[in-house]
Design goal:
The protein has two domains: 96 residues, no CATH class; 140 residues, Rossmann fold (3-Layer(aba) Sandwich). It has ten helices and seven strands. Strands 5-4-1-6-7 form a five-stranded parallel sheet, sandwiched between helices. The chain has a two-stranded antiparallel sheet with strand order 2-3.
Length: 250
């Protein structure tokens, strides 16, 4: 089921769907249909490459950013969810994605006294060596950055958001305190629902957000190819929320 859901998410990329429309418009024989499909493709291309349009729609599930100074009472645990990096086996090093902001913000919260301990939640879908599991190599990185091992808890079995919540709840079973859930703003809504289902009440600290308060001319009128990837994440989350609801995971 996990692998199937990952595969489906690839087909939720707007650029891929627009490509299919263009292919159909080329091979379809009726000119009126061809023209209609071409127009739909162009309109879809403009909408799905428009930053302003994306930000307005993504507000449906995206958490608004907050300043760490708004946190007055420290949290006992900051729970950071995996999915922000990959292990480059060729060059034997960790490569961070845009979601790497999750771990950067977590470290900042720790050193500013906003969280007392860090729980890193994230395993691997496929069998890999221990040093290639995200939570394990992140643990080593945090140690290098000066965070003591007694303030780091590793959850290395989870393969998706549901399992993040499930296995983290097992770790926290006999622990009490306040929990801060740290994840990408577009992912935080589904993550919070999963943790609530697992019996863990959390506050959200959103990272790598797209919310803007001022928009430039380019944001509103000029296509931006990078927004296709943001739409893909958005549709992935919508699909995740619906499928998790059907499966009873949230």
């Amino acid at each position: 089921m996990i692998i199937i859901s990952k595969m489906i998410s690839y087909f939720l990329n707007p650029l891929f769907l627009i490509f299919l429309l263009l292919i159909v418009s080329i091979i379809y024989k009726k000119k009126k249909i061809n023209k209609a499909l071409l127009i739909i493709s162009l309109v879809a291309f403009y909408i799905f490459s428009n930053k302003f349009a994306y930000v307005q729609i993504s507000k449906i599930i995206e958490y608004k950013p907050i300043n760490s100074n708004q946190i007055k009472t420290p949290y006992n645990y900051g729970i950071v969810l995996g999915g922000y990096s990959a292990f480059d086996t060729i060059n034997n090093k960790v490569v961070f994605s845009q979601a790497g902001d999750r771990i950067m913000q977590t470290v900042d919260l720790y050193f500013n006294g906003k969280i007392k301990k860090i729980i890193i939640s994230g395993g691997s879908i496929k069998p890999v060596s221990k040093n290639q599991i995200e939570s394990e190599y992140t643990n080593q990185i945090l140690l290098k950055w000066g965070i003591p091992q007694e303030d780091i808890i590793v959850e290395n079995k989870s393969r998706n958001t549901y399992e993040n919540a499930k296995f983290t709840s097992e770790i926290l079973k006999n622990k009490t305190g306040k929990y801060l859930l740290i994840s990408s703003s577009i992912h935080a809504y589904r993550a919070k629902l999963c943790f609530e289902k697992a019996g863990i009440k959390t506050d959200i600290y959103p990272t790598d957000y797209m919310v803007k308060y001022k928009y430039s001319f380019a944001d509103i009128f000029i296509p931006d190819s990078s927004i296709f990837n943001e739409w893909s994440k958005f549709f992935h989350e919508i699909f995740g929320i619906i499928s998790y609801k059907i499966l009873g995971n949230i």
